[in-house]
Amino acid sequence: MEIANELLRVALLGTERQPLPWPEQAADGLGRLLSALDAGDREGALLGAAGALAVYRRAGRVSATRETVPVPCPRDAQPRCSERAALHLAQMLEDPHKLPVLPEWLQALRAKDKRIPEEKLPPLLELGRRDRELRETLVPALGKRGAWLASLNPDWSYALASSAETGEDALEVWQTADTPDRQRLLRTIRREYPDRARKLVESTWKEDPPEERAAFLAELRTGLSMADEPLLEEALDDRRKEVRQAAIDLLARLPESRLVRRMSERVLPLIAIPDGEPATIEVRLPEASDKAMQRDGVALKPTADHGNLGEKAFWLLQMLRAVPPSHWSHRRELPPERLLDAADRSEWKEVLMRGWAEAAARFRSPGWAEAMLLRADALQDGAARAPLLEALPPAQQQAVLLELMPDAHRTAAEHQGWVALLRACERDWSSTFAEKVVAHSLGILDSRYGFHLEPALSLCSLTVPPSLYPTVAAQLGEGSDDAWGWRSRAVEKFLVLLRFRWDMLQALEE
């Protein structure tokens, strides 16, 4: 790679401005070959060097770290996928527009109990080296051949780290893996064995640097339970702020945690909901802050994203978001909608609404989350509301999004807000929901807000069930570019990718 980069630099700057790089690099066979080129003919030597390097790469090289022939790879029990399925894989590896479909292909391949073609394992392993997010779906699909190959190349060691599942293997990998691979290992084990994953974190807790401790705590969000509380309570006394904040975020998601109990004891006396109609809310600000409050995450000074809140209002907001919203519903047995109406009439509306919204998302309270999403201003800031949508189960998410779907008379900000919420929706779309989202996106596409709905159509190409392709293609009149005018390219890209996914899954059936 070093020689290739030098050759590229010479080609870009010109042979007159940049000397040829190889006379001093004659230690190996390639270096000796390059040194033998006629340096007097700079242009010819540059072309000759490029050709020699291409042949060298094609021929490969002997590993400098292995002195013995490796043990042969064990055979995979799964049958190889069909040639047509392999062709789809090749297209994804070569076409950046189709590459986002690769995780879906890998998951479908595993569901059919088939294996990746051997010749595609090296490019996939290399892709996984560059793309950390892909590893979660790639590694389980690699099979025995993929793991064998990964064991021969240190650059692909991530595949070995992610495949460790048993206690002793996981501990051994944990001791030697780098931080990203440790995070991935935690994520994998945490789904099935949450206690085992936490014990990995505890095994090196005192030796790990603070940024790693914070990153590892964040992975405990999956499978979070009261069994994690002792470690998290200990982390509240960590010297580094990022570690304390990670622990606070997790403890505040456990309704039975000591931190939530302490926060509730602080904030419940400050907010009253008197009898009478319409419902009202009386707010009293905390009088002072102390060390115990600060240990539980109540920061002293408002941050830039908290507007014009005063210090005491900011303290109250931080307490509110650490208390389950159900506490307020039980005060007078009022539904969330009534309490939100009361907050609307309060002079402390901003504090109450923001605190309750963060608490509803944090504690995954579907009733509160839906009530807040369906308020009139929900689409004004869709990105900020997205955590509320994530607190709902998939079917409820889809129902809320259909109810919020803006028509052509809504503002640009509302269209953008709806698309932001759509991005937060679970990817397992039902056919009915997908059809309505596609119809809506296409209906708005040719309006003045079409620019805002193009991202929605692009998202649909990856989330609409591929089985709908024949129906959607017939409705759109595939191939008639004139039908959509200046938006025809967006429609074409949508159809091309949806058809690719449909054909891709069909091929995996073979």
Widest sheet, order of strands: 1-2
Q: Compute the average pLDDT.
A: 85
Can you count the beta strands?
2
User: Which CATH architecture of the largest domain?
Assistant: Alpha Horseshoe
* SSE class: mainly alpha
As a percent range, the share of helical residues equals 55-70%
Question: How far is the N terminus from the C terminus?
Answer: 40 Å
Shape: globular
Radius of gyration: 29 Å
Provide the low-confidence segments as ranges: none
Largest sheet: 2 strands, antiparallel
Number of domains: 4
> Strand percentage, roughly?
under 5%
Query: What's the CATH C level of the largest domain?
Result: Mainly Alpha
Explain what this protein looks like in three dimensions.
This protein is globular. Strands 1-2 form a two-stranded antiparallel ribbon. It has 510 residues and is an all-alpha fold. It starts with a helix and ends with a helix. It has helices spanning 2-13, 29-35, 42-59, 83-94, 102-111, 121-130, 135-141, 143-152, 157-163, 167-176, 179-192, 194-203, 210-219, 229-235, 241-251, 258-267, 291-295, 311-320, 326-332, 336-344, 349-362, 366-373, 382-390, 394-404, 412-424, 431-445, 450-463, 469-476, 488-507, and strands spanning 271-272, 282-283. The chain has 4 domains: 2-59, no CATH class; 83-258, Leucine-rich Repeat Variant, CATH 1.25.10; 262-366, no CATH class; 376-510. It is built from 29 helices and 2 strands. The mean pLDDT is 85.
